[in-house]
Each structure stands twice: as structure tokens, then as C-alpha cells.
Amino acid sequence: MALIVKKFGGTSVANIERIRNVASRVVRDYDQEHDVVVILSAMAGVTDGLIQLAHQITDTPDKRELDVLLATGEQTTAALLAMLLKSMHYPSVSLLGFQAEVHTDAAFGNARIHNIGANRVRDFLKQRHIVVVAGFQGCDAEGNITTLGRGGSDTSAVAIAAALKADVCEIFTDVDGVYTADPHICKRAQKLPRISYDEMLEMASLGAKVLQIRSVEFAKKFNVAVHVRSSFSEEEGTMVVNADADMEKMVVTGVTSNKNDARITFKQIPDQPGIAAKIMTPIGEAGIIVDMIIQNPHSGGKTDLTFTVPKVNYREAMKIAKTVGRKIGAKEVIGDENIGKVSVTGVGMRSHSGVAAKMFSALSRENINIMMITTSEIRISCVIEEKYAELAVQALHTAFGLDRDS
Amino acid sequence: MALIVKKFGGTSVANIERIRNVASRVVRDYDQEHDVVVILSAMAGVTDGLIQLAHQITDTPDKRELDVLLATGEQTTAALLAMLLKSMHYPSVSLLGFQAEVHTDAAFGNARIHNIGANRVRDFLKQRHIVVVAGFQGCDAEGNITTLGRGGSDTSAVAIAAALKADVCEIFTDVDGVYTADPHICKRAQKLPRISYDEMLEMASLGAKVLQIRSVEFAKKFNVAVHVRSSFSEEEGTMVVNADADMEKMVVTGVTSNKNDARITFKQIPDQPGIAAKIMTPIGEAGIIVDMIIQNPHSGGKTDLTFTVPKVNYREAMKIAKTVGRKIGAKEVIGDENIGKVSVTGVGMRSHSGVAAKMFSALSRENINIMMITTSEIRISCVIEEKYAELAVQALHTAFGLDRDS
Q1: Closest Cα partner for A288 from A307, A305, A265, A266?
Q2: Within a 10 A sphere around the Cβ of B396, how many other Cβ atoms?
Q3: What are chain B's domains?
Q4: How far apart are CA B21 and CA B100, in angstroms?
Q5: Which residues in chain B touch residue A94, judged by CB atoms under 8 angstroms apart?
Q6: Which of A98, A100, A177, A368 gives A238 a disulfide partner, CB atoms 3.0 to 4.6 angstroms apart?
Q7: Chain B residues within an 8 Å CB radius of A93
């Protein structure tokens, strides 16, 4: 008899028929004497629809009120599933974020979970209820409704699983697990039976849209076993767990790419202490998150400085950059939206050398020029021309021996 | 500087354009230094749409979960209005039922308000915020979401006005006040500048769909001045207040009709003590509310018994009645869905005689047969053939001198 937390994403509850499918999966576990807590997202498209509604009011909707509006999406699906389960004669109850005591900070639109009381969840489980919790939402210390950002229902699920010390947190989604690469890009990508929290963190932040990053951080911190699997098949998916010796054997676990960033370069600025701060401070103050930064010294006391920003902030960042550029006497400020980032990730890198060299030569063999490089303990990322992103993924996937036998 | 509670119904917030209209009315009061609390219904049609969604799940949706679902309607409009006010640079905040501490019993779908804390409402008013409260919803002692039944936002508004000791509770609706008769039926109906709580109670229960009955009960109990007016015009509407000497002068204040009931007659049942109970008990147990009951003794120890039930319960009531009829040896059980009820109401009846006689002769002049009669201290109602309902209203309106000079 286990305690299972099951989270279903927007496509899994997109209509009444699919909610029936969710119910049938849920009651199967319940019938096997397991305790079941279900976390739901809003129906696919609903959150975007609500944002559009808010934008009919104003271009910059107040964040507190937007959260009140958005929270209705998960409230709807939670009520519908609990209603359906009850109509099937299963004891069930829906709980909203505040009712499940999902306590967050007051960062509306992107709140972080502080702690989860879940007392009512526990009480209802004791009474053998299937507890349905609205994902994505919580409440701050004042009782205001907050939301946890895109993909926040994943974090709701993992945090609730942690609070309840659940045996497993199953994340049902429209893919059937975590792959060595995006199967749409790389035909010979393989599903990974297991992946470590750290690898998942790197891959999540690099564009593998399987799990919200914070949910993985939570899972790692509280050691929650997360099972990523498809809501449309019975197959086992991928377990996200602590790294072990077996995993270390594999040098690279996954190859990812994204096209979310743009690049801004200051040409020939004075090579003086404090110059980078002069550039980065106004960018940071505008709330724009800079990812990579590199500086190339020139001759004559001049240097080039290049950094990447999210594409959505590119125009704003360029405007700021041009103003700063004039102030500090840059020769020119140029931007480039046509960049991509390709990365290889693996806990095995900690104990294997030569990974970077192998990566660079694989790209070089395809005549792909590397513009910027960053590394972490378990990841190497290269910025390349956007048009080569798919080719780079395929080449690296082959080079690191990840191709499935077909 | 007054404290004004303003409630806007579903047609007043039916789309973004109309919500803008609401905002402009609200800020006008705020700009005149008044404290303003706004109570909103869901957009017109939304509640019905949500009920239909629930019915796609099951014919008999669980009431607790239905309330969770329905509460999203008012949550949406409250968030949108607060968002709009903020975008217009007015300090504003939305509060849901539980946040405004609208404490109710646990009668899901038709909960009654026990008390209203409204501490956060008061705090925000002190900070000169326009407070927008989601109508129709509250929470029970366990923190479950409850709803107050059709028209419940009226009751939310009056109850909050009572809790805050507001100077006035304005109910904005799609009619511009309370009329001596439905202007669609009676062209010469006049708008009443004032009406007493008791008259409004009688008229509300008789089909004048202006205010939810419970809201009037609340207003009477806590002596809240209610101003019923149009959200689409600037004209003064109707004040609902305590009866005074001036009102007593008018014998009849309003003529109303409805076609919501059906009639069931047991022919020739034994005229014995307890026979009515035998009939009414199973009807009551089915949750069907009986309005009028009359008994006509026959010769030979037999009697006829007739009662009315809401049309929506007619089929079910007839089924029960036929079963009971066989058991107690009724000659036959007949039903009639084609009935209407016409009523005259006025606090003046307390001090004037001859009102009933005047009513009966007015109907008789039109050859309208009276099937059943009930009276209260300030109302006389007659059941007539449905097809005469409009004619009866017109005839009574004229007979009691209510016709507007035109």
C-alpha cells in the first residue's frame, strides 16, 4: 500500500473525455489499496485564454489580480475531476491551493513555495478519499492567491509529495519520458529509464520542456522519486532520482538545444575595471536575466563584450545597450537574434575527461562555428548559428554514442 | 463622505466593455471622497455555461464540487475589475468570499450567510482602496467554498453592507427600479421611488426578479438602505427601506404575476384526520416545496385536496401523487400545468379594508375565474388560468389606481 501523487498536465485534462481517462487511471491505483493524491493543471489553452482576457483590460495586468484570474483554471479542472470521481462512487474531494495550505512568498506570477501544511490532504487520505488538488496555485502569508509560474503544477505535485512523504510522484504529460534528445529533432533518440536530479535540472533549464526546473530542485532537496510518464500509454517512463554509480558510467546522458536567446555585443569598449558593471547594471535593473557573458580583449586597451538575453527581452535590452554604448564610448553595439544553444549533459562528466574536446570536434566536423561556450560540472553549452541547432544535436547525439540501434 | 456598497449583476459585467462602464461609475464615487466596495456577479451566461460543463460529467453533480466550479465565475469578474481599476491608477484589490470572510453554513449550492468578518475589507478601505468582492460565494466553517444560490450576489452585497454599516447598498441591474407591475406586461406601470422591505419581500417571492429574497430579509434585519437602479442610466431607481406613514397611504404598491407553479388535485379522498399529512409527507420528503393548499369538502365524507408545486417539480410530484392516490383510495389525481398566479401587495392593506373584494370584482369583470386564493397581512394572491395572467395584471393595476398618467 503506497502513497502515490499523480500530476496531470493541461493536455491530459484538455476536455471531459480526457478527464475521464485521468479518472480511470486514478481509480485503478485506488482500487489496489493505494492512497492517491491528484494534482491537476488547467485545461490546455485555458491559461493562455485568461491571459488574453486580461490583456483586453490592459497591456500590463496587475500581477496579484492576474493570479486571482489564472487560478480559476486549475480550480475548474480540480472541481470537475472530484465531481466525476464522486459520480463513479469513489470518495473524493477537491482542494484549492489555500485549502491544501500551499504557502508561498508573495511574488505574484512566479511565487516560490515556502512550505506545505497539507493537513486537510492527510485527513481526507485517512478517510480513504482521493484528494484532488488544484496545481499551480498557492497563497501567501496574507491569504492572497499566488501562482507558481509556467509549469508550476509540477512543483505543486513534487512539493505536496515531499510534504506527504509520498512513495512516488508521477508526472503525467504528453511525452512518455525523458529522452537523450528531442525525438522530433533526433530520430534515434532513446528514452532514458533513469536520470539524476542534477542532469534533469541542467536539461530542464536548457529547454527540455518536460518538468518545471523548480520541481526538480524540490525533488532533489527532499529526495522525491519523480516518475515522468505519458498519460496516454501504460508504458513506464523515466525515473528522476539521485545519481548512482551506474549513471556515472554514461558520460553524456542527453543532448539539448534551444533558440530562446539572443546575443548582444559591445565592440571596442575601454578595457577598464568596472566597465562590465556599467553595462550589466541597467540590464539587470530592467529585470532582464543575462545568461552567458564573454569578454575578448582587443589591442589598444579596447575589449569586446558579448552576452545573451532571452529573445523576449531582446528589443528592450538592445535599447538599453545602445544608450549605455553611447555613454561609455563603444565603437558599436550589435545584436543577433539568430543564435541557438546546444548542450551536452551528464553526471559522468565529473569523472571523465575529454568531453569538451569531443564536442568541439564533432561540431567542427559539421563545419559549425562555435561563438560562445559555457560549462558547468555536468554540462557544456555552445552558442552557434540558429540554423545549425538541429544538425548539431544530431551530430553530438551520434558522437557520444547515444543513438538507438534501429 | 459616505461608505457605498455597489453591486453589479451579470448583464452589467457581461463583457470587457461593460466592465469598463462599471469602473467609470465606481471611480466617480471614489473621486468624490466616498469609500467604495463593489460586489460583482459572474458575466451573464457564465454560471449557466459552468453548470452545463458539470452536466457533461454527470446529471447530478456533487454539490460541494459544483460550488467550487461555479465560484470561478465571480472570481473572474472580480479579478478583471480590480485589474482595470489599477490600470486606471486607482488603488484596488479583489477579495474572494473566503478572503472577505463571508462565513456561511455548509448547504452547498444554497448556503446561508452566518456572519461576515470583512476585516480585510475594512483594512483596505482605510488605505483608500476600492475593494472588489466576488459575490455569490462564501466559505463554511471548514474552509470549503459555498455558493448562495441564484441571485446570491445581492445577498453578498447587502450582508457586506450590513457588516460595514454602509450608508447605502446600490444594486445595479438591467432594470431601473421596482415597478408597480412588470412594464413588459403593463404599459402604464410606474417606477416606485420607495418601497418597504416587507412589500419587496412579497414581490420578490412572487416573481419580481429584481432582488434575491434573502437579500431583502438581510436588509430588513440589519436595516440596510438598498437602492435598486440601472447600470445603464444615471436615473435614481427605487429605495428599499422601512415602511413609514407615507407608504401606508397607498393601499396597493404592486401587482405581480408568475407562471412558475403547477396544480395537483386529489379528487374525493376520505375526509379523515391525517389524510393531508399522508399526501404531503412523501412530497416534502422528495424536497418539493408546496406553496398553496386548499381542501373542499364533498358530500358523503369525501373531500377534494388541491395544492401547487413548482412547475420544475411537477412530473416528479405527479408520480408521487398517483402512488399515494392509489394507496388512500382517491377517485382520481389530476394535474394542471396551465395555471398562473396574480398578486397585489401593499403595506397599506394593514389599515385598509375591502382590498380582497376589490380584487375579486376586478378579475370577475374580465371573466377570469379564481381557482385558489391565499393571503398574507400585506398580500392577496389568486391562482387563475395561465392564459389570463397578463390581462389580470393589467386589470388589477387599473383597478387599484396604479396606472401612470400618459
Answers
A1: A307
A2: 27
A3: 3-174 (3.40.1160.10), 244-406 (3.30.2130.10)
A4: 24
A5: 65, 68
A6: A177
A7: 64
